[in-house]
Amino acid sequence: MPDSRTLTPGSGPAPYDALLLLSFGGPEAPEDVVPFLENVTRGRGIPKERLAEVGKHYFLFGGVSPINEQNRELLAALRKDFAEHGLDLPVYWGNRNWAPYLTDTLRELAADGHRRALVLATSAYAGYSGCRQYRENLADALATLEGEGVTGLTVDKLRHFYNHPGFVEPMVDATLAALAALPDGVREGAHLTFTTHSIPDAMAESSGAPDDPARGEPGGAYVAQHLEVARLVAGAVAERTGTSRPWELVYQSRSGAPHVPWLEPDVCDHLEALKEAGAPAAVMVPIGFVSDHMEVKYDLDTEATAKAAELELPVTRAATVGADPRFTAAVRELVLERAAAERGDRPERCALGALGPSHDVCAVACCPNPRAPRPAAAQH
Q: Residue 219 has what pLDDT?
């Protein structure tokens, strides 16, 4: 992909005229916490008293989730990168569960005269919550706008970027930095603990398209893609340090009913197992997350770190990708790649590892809604 200050003729974003940064959203004041959680859990009949209990980790941080500020940083970084490289494509930002809301942002985008937008969801992997649910949200928003008389607006979603060098390489450097922060006496034998959000087993097994090469043992594209990133990061760390370290993919942030099987082991249980096995230290590497939002700040930096202290197991935590310039460059490359493909070209598709680049357009059967089928945008 071009990396010069000026794009070459025919290498621009057409037929697209805007990029939408689409994220989860989060509260920005204590009084926002319960309304935010009501948005997240809408339709499940959870009482406000229970939501206040669920939201206690937000109150530990003043009722403010870091995610919105991190999205502002990413938004600014994308705009800066695009401008510096001659990519004339406005970037908008909308959320699923808090302001700026997706529907409002699409309404603004359309009022500005744009009619075909690309979407960057802040989730790198296949799965219902990380892909299809965002596409359902897009379909809902488009239907609302159509009811208001806004017609001709279409959206396409950028492919999953979990194995793009612009995502993997910053994670490698962050892991090396976290290793370097461990005490000298335990660093050499430290294990790597790769973490991501736990989801129900059934949802993990159905993730990805039915013919996705990532759909295989130990179950579904969600797990397979995370294992691929873990292997890539662990391999690069071994190459850079000369030490091959034990590693495992573990899970965090479970929120479902106890009787429903979810992906395991939990990160805190894993730390206990490491201590029992005699591991001298661990580095927690949150490959499942694009930024240091609440699931990282609370579940890892607070809860898991407290468990490690209780176990007297030295731990550090690698940073997430955030607004790393390599990641913003990767987004630009993905935009230009998708635009070229839509124009009928055959662009180079950058991907590390054995799974190759993900599909551009999701199949109808991708990552099915676990409750009932619903309309979804950006599919065929």
A: 63
Is residue 223 domain-shared with residue 260, that is, in the same domain?
yes
- Residue showing tokens 């003043």: 62
What is the Cα–Cα distance from 194 to 275, expressed in whole angstroms?
16
Find the mean pLDDT for residues 326-334. 98
Rounded percentage of the chain residues whose pLDDT exceeds 70 = 96
Q: Which residue do the tokens 């409002």 mark?
A: 104
| Cα–Cα distance measured from residue 353 to residue 358, given in angstroms and rounded to the nearest whole number | 12
Strands in 116-121's sheet, in edge-to-edge order, are: 91-95, 18-23, 116-121, 154-157
Q: Is residue 6 part of a domain?
A: no
Question: Does 57 lie in the same domain as 176?
Answer: no
Looking at residue 5, its pLDDT comes to 40
Q: Is 327 among the domain residues?
A: yes
Q: Is residue 371 part of a domain?
A: no
Same-domain check for residues 287 and 332:
no
- pLDDT tens digits along 103-128: 999 999 999 999 999 999 999 999 99
Cα–Cα distance measured from residue 259 to residue 111, given in angstroms and rounded to the nearest whole number? 47
Dihedrals phi, psi of 270, to nearest 5 degrees? -65, -40
Domain span at 37: 18-161+323-342
- Indicate the SS3 state at residue 115: coil
Mean pLDDT of the 201-206 span: 94
CA angle 349, 353, 359 (to 5 degrees): 40
Q: What is the 3-state secondary structure (H, E, C) of 176-203?
A: HHHHHCCCHHHHCCCEEEEEEECCEHHH
Domain count, the chain: 2
**Domain co-membership, 243 together with 139:** no
Taking the CA atoms of residue 84, residue 85, residue 88 and residue 90 in that order, the dihedral angle to the nearest 10 degrees is -60
Give the chain's largest Cα–Cα span.
Answer: 66
184/102 same-domain check:
no
